[in-house]
Amino acid sequence: MTDIIPNLKKFISNFIENRQFAKMTTGVIESVDPLKIKLENDITLDSDMCALTWTDKLTNDYKGLTVHLVRQDGGGFYYVLYKKAVLYKREDERGDQL
After folding, report:
1. Rounded to an integer, what is the distance from CA 30 to the centroid of its chain?
2. What is the mean pLDDT of residues 54-67?
3. How many folded domains does the chain comprise?
4. DSSP 18-84
């Protein structure tokens, strides 16, 4: 009976050490309207499963762009980050290039 508490402490310690609170992965933008991002493990995300970290309008120039994604704790939702800024084009509200 006295072994229960040390074993429980060890179990909790191992759980916390091995827990992944967030995971980084990469994906490729397959479609911009509707938004579809294919992850490196062949899962395809739609706009309900991710949030872009930029506010510019997505155009077809983004198709094929490789991006980094951070998976939220518990999985199921991703934050999309830029990986390559080479193809990055900005437009103002009127559609003029910045």
Report:
1. 15
2. 87
3. 1
4. H--S-EEEEEEEEEETTEEEEETTS-EEEGGGEEES--SPP-GGGTT-EEEEEEPTTSS-EEEEES-
Average pLDDT for 52-58: 85
Are the C-beta atoms of 80 and 51 separated by less than 8 Å? yes
Hey, what are 55's tokens? 């506010």
State the residue range of the domain holding 88: 21-98
- Angstrom distance (rounded) from CA 96 to CA 98: 6
Going from the C-alpha of 9 to that of each of 2, 17, 20, 56, 75, the distances in angstroms are 12, 12, 19, 48, 26
What is residue 41's predicted lDDT score, i.e. its pLDDT? 87
DSSP code, position 8: H
pTM of the model: 0.64
In a domain, 2, yes or no: no
